[in-house]
Amino acid sequence: MTTYTDLNTSARILLGPGPSTVHPRVLRAMAQPLVGHLDPQFLALMNEVQELLRYVFQTGNELTIPVSGTGSAAMEAALCNFIEPGDVVLIGVNGYFGERLCDMAVRYGAEVQRLEKAWGDVFEPEEVEAALRRQPAKLVALVHAETSTGALQPMEGMAEVVHRYGGLLLIDCVTSLGGVPVEIDAWDVDIAYSGTQKCLSCPPGLGPLTVGERAREMLRKRKSRVANWYLDLTMIEKYWGDARTYHHTAPISMNYALREALRLVYEEGLEARFRRHRRHAEMLWAGLEELGLQMHVPLAHRLPTLTTPRVPAGVDEVAVRKRLLNEYNIEIAGGLGVLAGKVWRIGLMGYSSRQENVTLLLAALRELLGR
Length: 371
Known about the structure:
By secondary structure, the protein is α/β, with parallel strands linked by helices. The protein has helices at residues 24-30, 40-57, 71-80, 96-107, 125-134, 158-164, 184-187, 213-220, 233-240, 252-268, 270-290, 317-328, 355-369, and strands at residues 13-14, 63-68, 88-93, 111-116, 139-143, 145-146, 151-152, 168-172, 191-193, 206-211, 306-307, 330-331, 333-334, 344-347.
């Protein structure tokens, strides 16, 4: 007879592109007893989660919620609710997740216009304006923090350009929310989404989403029903709003976890948290350069939460990653798409962004690379 032992996973040092290491307080919160998804205690928790999400997004948007699903579900919600067949959507493609935005938008019938740059580069407002001058778009989507390249997209001036041509601005904050400044109201962004498993150091399973009034008005004026029932915000907003109308059974324990993860962000304070992420990133960059490694992204738009050193010539990057995991218990990742085999992806996000992790990783790489 087959027997199944107790689950006993290793306590890895998670320094890849996600998930990051979960704070012990978040794990303890997940062990709280379940209540029903319409229980008064859970409804009160929902209000707190929304308030804390508004804090990290730096927004007053009423429709600010955790989508029940991973960051990819939040990405899809950010697209499917605002696209109708034949709508023109302009998407900045400078990495893997710009490509994913294109893939999703096409599936909802959008006429996708691609604004392309090399993987690791960023866009200027003038480039977006030139594209909109050629073809106005209902929606313009940019990746604020491109997880595949380690590039941080500047947002100053982008919304002004997009709104001048009558469009909505959507940004992907999956690898930035809680780790670098995300200022939804100050930047005048209409739609933004993220994931819980990166800079918030919560398990994967919820997708923070915030939607401004411009976008909500467009949602109300749709000519057709949202093509995705599960992610239809016209129904979901009634569950997260005052009516508390049943739509689906929310993942109770994941919302416990998110509340605690956001409470940790609130206790630390956003500015202090951003300084911590920057300090440890600069320590990593300096150490990698001492080892002779070249960073893929220029310093001017390098993402502090996700670093992409180029793999040295003659080095088996997969073998290095395997030895890091097997000998040092450290997880990092390889490149995606056109950067596969060319870079490593090293994440210092949330609870993983600690000095001891940087010191250990640099020492391990020095040993493995013989530097």
